[in-house]
Amino acid sequence: MRRTVLIVCQFVFGAILIAPAIAERxxxxxxxxxxxxxxxxxxxxxxxxxxxAVVSNGGATLTGTAKNPGSKxxxxxxxxxxxxxxxxxxxxxxxxxxxxxxxxKEM
Length: 107
Hints:
The chain contains 3 helices and 5 strands. By secondary structure, the chain is α/β, with parallel strands linked by helices.
């Protein structure tokens, strides 16, 4: 019984000591901006749309013109995944965008 308690205590104290080392560190503004830019450049559906990001105090502001609403939403998700604490998405949707009307199925 004593040995079990000792093992449990070692496990708990070990977890307490290791947890801060495992926790994700806060990224700097240049690191967040670099991450966003790289992901924009490497995303097939986004790379040719010329989006840009400015990062200040952890918050990202996105600009550019999207071909469709999905691309605008994807840009927001990229910024969040790169560590932006807030995202202001000022990307506009192209005036050439025409929503696809759903096809009605006949029964």
